[in-house]
Amino acid sequence: MMQWMSAISLTMTYQKSLLQVTDILSKIFAIEKMKEEIKKTEVLVLKVTDYRETSRIINGFSEDFGKITLLAKGARKPKSRISAPFQTLVNSEVVFYKKENRDMYIVKEAGVVEYFQYIHSNLVRFNYASVVADFIFSFLAPEQVSKTLFQYSLHILKEINVRPVEVLPGIITKFLLKGSAILGFKMELSKCSSCGNRIEPPVYISSESGGVICNKCYQKYREAISIDYGTYKVITQIEKVAGKQMIIIRKKELKEILLIFSNWFFYHNHRTLKTLGNLIESECSNTMEKAGLKQ
Fold first, then answer.
1. What is the Cα–Cα distance from 284 to 250, expressed in whole angstroms?
2. What is the pLDDT of residues 263-292, one digit of tens each?
3. pLDDT by residue (tens digit) across 159-199?
């Protein structure tokens, strides 16, 4: 009888110990899983939307996870520590919980990496920088990672932040050319995109063909439009220019360049950028003259 009772006691003790071990292992597994879900990356804030009474939804472009959506709880509170990092056109370091099968991630903490002071204090600079954010937000697929585009976008924003206002049209043209190439819809400018011949005036551009086309190929593409040869030369010069060099763009040329990109984006992405229209309205009017841009 005593042996039987001892066996039962030992069995119960073993089962209790096994449950304790299982519980400990479960907790360890949960902790390790949580560690895996906590991610840290730099995020360029593209768009901010107020959410409920105290929070914000952030659409951002991250270096390591592509275009992501974040929920910043309490970001609208007066003394919130994560209010400053989540402003449009701010580059921030963000720690967040990344869970599978979620399309929005909760922010744990955040801090400003670069604020771009002069972009936020000057409307002309802000309008140009907004084109960068609009381009990424509109044409980059969710969680599509492109470290090249991320680093290049930061470089362009730094340029817009500090370079003279008169070179901003050239800077944004350079960005739109290279950004399009990075995302796979490059505009061919060096030769006729249809036959490969050298480009001579008159010049046309065809979204269907993939870039500029010569006079001989013009009849093949009904949607092709004529562009000024001077504007074409300016775009090709901007594409080739390196380092800190930049081409000054006249008002007439800028308007045509922005319209070319609007048509280009609509053909390849079935949408254009509202910010390009805003630039046409603002920079191709008196605003440009006040900023001292050459005509």
1. 9
2. 999 999 999 899 999 998 887 764 444 444
3. 999 999 999 999 999 999 999 999 999 999 999 999 999 99
Q: Which CATH number fits domain 37-115: 3.90.1640.10, 2.40.50.140, 3.40.190.170, 3.60.110.10?
A: 2.40.50.140
| CATH of 119-290 given 1.20.1440.120, 1.10.155.10, 2.40.50.140, 1.20.1740.10 | 1.20.1440.120
Q: What are the structural domain ranges in the chain?
A: 37-115, 119-290
Residue 97 near residue 176 (C-beta atoms within 8 A): no
Please state, in angstroms and rounded to a whole number, the distance separating the CA atoms of residues 216 and 84.
56
Per-residue confidence (pLDDT) for residue 286, from 0 to 100: 47
DSSP codes joined into one string, the chain: -HHHHHHHHHHHHHHHHHHHHHHHHHHHHHHHHHHHHEEEEEEEEEEEEEETTTEEEEEEEETTTEEEEEEETTTTSTT-TTTTTSSTT-EEEEEEE--TT-SSEEEEEEEEEE--HHHHH-HHHHHHHHHHHHHHHHHSPBT---HHHHHHHHHHHHHHHHS-GGGHHHHHHHHHHHHHHHTT-PPB-SS-TTT-PPP-SSEEEETTTTEEE-TTTGGG-TT-EEE-HHHHHHHHHHHH--TT------HHHHHHHHHHHHHHHHHHHS---HHHHHHHHHHTTHHHHHTT---
Residue 101 has pLDDT above 80, yes or no: no
Token duo for residue 41:
């990356």
